[in-house]
Amino acid sequence: MGQFGSMGYILLMFAVMYFFMIMPQQKRAKKEKEFEKSLKVGDKIITKSGLHGKIAELAETTVVVETMSGKLKMERSAISLEMSAALNKKV
Questions:
Q1: Which residues are registered as beta bridge partners of 55?
Q2: Which of 55, 35, 60 is nearest to 45 (CA)?
């Protein structure tokens, strides 16, 4: 019985890790993918590095962001979901 009890605790530990660590990470990744797909020209955004700008052009995996200094080409994944949502909520 002791051997099966130890196995039960190990399985329980993996289940808890899955529900508290892996599942939320998968939800967050899915939400970010949906956000990247929903971007359109004219959206105000903030990148993960803190650059503010407006989307000037869109390609499949890249965007051209218009800033006060000029235009920058970057990956869609460089755009911050939380910061851009907060920026657009204020306006």
A1: 65
A2: 55
